[in-house]
Amino acid sequence: MRKRLDFAFALLAVLLVAQACDTAEECPVCSAPSDRDAACPIDSGGGGASAEPAADGGPDGMADAATEAGCEALDACVDCTGHGECPDEACDPVRGVCVPCIADGTGCADDIGEPVCKSAGNTDNNECVECTQSAGQCDGAAPACDTAGNTCVPCLTGTHEGCSGAEPVCKAGATSSDNECVQCTAADDDACSDATPHCDTTDNTCAPCLNSSHCTDHDAARCNTLTGLCVSCQSSSPDCDSVPGLPVCKLPEAECVECTAAEHDACTDDTPYCDTDGNSCVACTENSHCLEISAARCHDDNTCIGCTQDGDCTRFSETPVCDEPRGTCVECTLDTEAQECGAKACRLSDGTCTETNRGTLLPCRVCEADSECQSGSYCIDQVGQFCFWDAGAGCADTSPGYRPYSTTSSTLTSIDGYESTFCLPPGTVSCAAIVSTENDTECSVNTDCSPSGQGSYCPESAEPREGYCSYWCDNDYDCPSGLVCPGGTYCQ
Q1: pTM assigned to the model
Q2: What torsion do the CA atoms of 14, 15, 20, 24 make, to the nearest 10 degrees?
Q3: Three-class SS of residue 325?
Q4: Cβ contact 10:33 at 8 Å
């Protein structure tokens, strides 16, 4: 009884894992462990496998019946259990069916150049190809895998896989198998650098130059397109066009320079002349090139600087004299005053002739140069420029000839550089008040004589000098010669 139960349980287990197979063609191999090498017997009526049970109907007969039932009704039969059962293919060990190939490459033959099994998600659709990846599958002359066609190719465009060293760029061919490694392409000219920065797309090589615009050295400004090398110039243009600041080809030296004697017109703007010794553009090579009176001399360094002698200025008709302290060409100097200005004075402050004759201005008269003042007086800036006596011989308080200039100044310097003390008007009296008094200027109010606050006075009716200008005084010597100061009032 126990043996029959064991048999029943075994039969039930087979029923749970298989489906029936009908023909030997569909199910040539039995997958039951005890019958792996035996063919499934097939019912002549197409109803599946059959076998005669044991004569005694005992346990052995029951086992034969279980085997028959398993092969007939429970699909214990499969296409294959090993690769040898699938000619020119491989056995899928999971499903027990023959497929084109499996992941370990079984089914793919090395001798036909497709040793790799490409998985398609369903093993029935697997296919043999050259490669699915570069590493370990492609080498030699075709080290990269084109995964679009699953073929080994020389290199891949875009990533340049397969290329390195002196030929790092992949150039596309008619097909990926025609790709080739080169130094550069038009799309990948950045692969060129250093001494060979330009890509010659005719042969995909890096070169120093393709045209003369790539050559910028003064002694190698022309591109030899046959060799791709920068060589010396043969002519100014176009050979030197790309050399910054050196547009002229100097022969026989064959180098680019700023200018030559034959091509001096290359010099312009602030450096319009060619120094042929150094083939450089400069501001001047001689004095006549210097056009400013403040920079009339051409220095040894070919720049215009200030004059040092009259000869530097003689070409300037209106300013033919050199004011050496200032280094500028002027109309006159103290030494050339008579020669250049005639009877007029030379205004040393700007080197021009004034409209006033030399030595004619009295003290307190407006002046522009020392030489305009009478001998012994100088042009001093005292709220305006006026002539005043040099105080070396005393002023009006001790030397009546200098009336009314009774105040001795501190040390002053005249407008033309003479340094001394000088005799100035008394107190708060201005030169305008003194001049209007000396000139007997008629008045009706004080301001007719000088501006308000400058000491002038217009005497009232019945006073001495009635109707004529005067000014307030303290002493007789404060008044012009011929006038007195009675009782410290005003000059009369």
Answers
A1: 0.56
A2: 20
A3: coil
A4: no
Average of per-residue pLDDT values in the chain: 86
Q: Which helix (H) or strand (E) holds 2?
A: helix 2-17
Contact (CB, 8 A) for 131 and 118: no
- Residues forming beta bridges with residue 386, ordered by sequence position: 366, 380
Report yes or no: 321 and 304 within 8 Å, Cβ to Cβ.
Answer: no
- Indicate the SS3 state at residue 66: helix
With CA atoms as reference, report the closest residue to 116 among 79, 147, 80, 161.
147
Answer whether 176's CB lies under 8 Å from 146's CB: yes
- Where are the chain's structural domains? 2-78, 331-424, 431-488
**Tell me: the pLDDT tens digits for 353-368?**
999 999 999 999 999 9
**Rounded CA gap, 312 and 79, in Å?**
118
Q: How confident is the model at residue 110 (pLDDT cuts 50, 70, 90)?
A: low
The beta strands (E) that lie in 185-271 are given as 198-200, 205-207, 222-224, 229-231, 248-250, 255-257
What six digits make up the tokens of 331?
């109309």
Residue 15 has pLDDT above 70, yes or no: no
Question: What is the rounded distance in angstroms from the CA atom of residue 165 to the CA atom of residue 150?
Answer: 26
Residue type, 199: C
